[in-house]
Amino acid sequence: MLASIVKVQQFYRLLFAYLSKNNPILMFLNTILVNWTELVSSNKKLKVAKYRVNHLKYRLYQMEQVIEQGNPYNIAEGKKIDRLQ
Predict the structure, then answer these.
(1) CB burial string 32-70: b at 16+ within 10 A, e below
(2) Is the pTM of this model over 0.70?
(3) Residue 73 CA to its chain's centroid (Å)
(4) Rounded mean pLDDT of 67-79?
(5) In Å, how far from its chain's centre is CA 52?
(6) Which residue, among 32, 17, 53, has the nearest Cα to 61 in the 3D structure?
(7) Minimum mean pLDDT among 14-23, 43-52, 69-78: which range?
């Protein structure tokens, strides 16, 4: 009888120690909070990502224009060399 009471007390002590270190309710609330902040800030992150993509497209367009201006085989710049040769 006394051994079973000691085992139950040990079980409750271990359970209490585990719950004090790893609080599942607190972990659940933290998960909800993190997911909520990610959900709220996702629109802002999407806007930043779209801006970056559009900026990179614009820079690529600028580089293509610079390459075309320096290209001797371009129609506008074709007078520099005789294209029939």
Answers:
(1) eeeeeeeeeeeeeeeeeeeeeeeeeeeeeeeeeeeeeee
(2) no
(3) 43
(4) 63
(5) 14
(6) 53
(7) 69-78
Q: At 50, list the tokens.
A: 């779209």
Would you list the DSSP string of the chain?
Answer: -HHHHHHHHHHHHHHHHHHHHS-HHHHHHHHHHHHHHHHHHHHHHHHHHHHHHHHHHHHHHHHHHHHHHT-TTSSTTGGGS-TT-
Tokens of 45: 């992150």
Whether the Cβ atoms of residue 81 and residue 72 lie closer than 8 Å to each other: yes
